[in-house]
Amino acid sequence: MYHHLKWLLTCSIVMAFIPLSGNTPNHYSPEKNQPISSIPVLLTSLDTSYYEDTQLNLSDDIVLDAVYDPDFPDSLLNISIISDSGTVFYWYDRDSRTHKFWSNKDVDSCGYFHIQVSNPRDSILTKPFIVDIVPVNDAPVINSIPDTMANQDSSFALSLSRYCSDVDNRFSDLSWSANASICSVNFPFNNDSLICRPPSGFTGWDTLVIRVSDPAGLADMDTFRIYFRDIYPPSFTVGIFQNPVASEHLDIYFFPEEVIDSVYATLINGDSVVAEFLSILDPAPYHAHFRLHQNGTQTLRITAADTSGNIGTTNYDFSSSLISKKNGGCLYSPDLRAKIDFPSDCTTRDYHCLCLPRSHTDGNNPTNTNLVLSKTGSNPENYDYVFTAPDINLNRECKITFFPKDANRRYAICEKNEGKWTLLETFTNSRQSQYWIYTKKLGAFTLKSASEEMIKTVPDRFRVSQNYPNPFNAQTLISVSVPDSPNGNIPSGIDIIIVNIRGQEVDRINRVIPAPGHYQIPWNGHGQPSGVYFYSVHSGNFRKTMKMVLVK
Question: Cα separation of 546 and 537, whole Å?
Answer without folding.
Answer: 9
